[in-house]
Input
Amino acid sequence: MAASFRTLCFSVLRHSRRHLNTTATVQAGQKWRKENGLSRTGSEFGPLTDLPDWSFADGRPAPPLKGQLRRREEKENLARRIVMLSSEVDGGIEVWKQKQEEAKRAEELRKSLLFIPKGRLLTKKNPKS
Output
């Protein structure tokens, strides 16, 4: 039954001249928000999303909502990941610098172990340097 209904729907949609396009409604205002320094959607961050909906009459803050706790945890996890990746990059740069210095020392050692020219070769100007 479900397969025949699905086949019927697909055949109707295939032969129909109208097509349903939903991309414009999904991205409505997204370009304008990005150009003005706002979030892609109105509910990603900002006072309406981050601040509590209410507070007690005596001024005490309301307990955080589930969405606020989830967003706070996501932000903390993102911050931890950024710090971890940044430290990995710093460590990689240090290792690269050490390898460069080691290669430079090895090249200097190799050059110091070469024979010293004597006689006419010593007085002749070296074209390489």
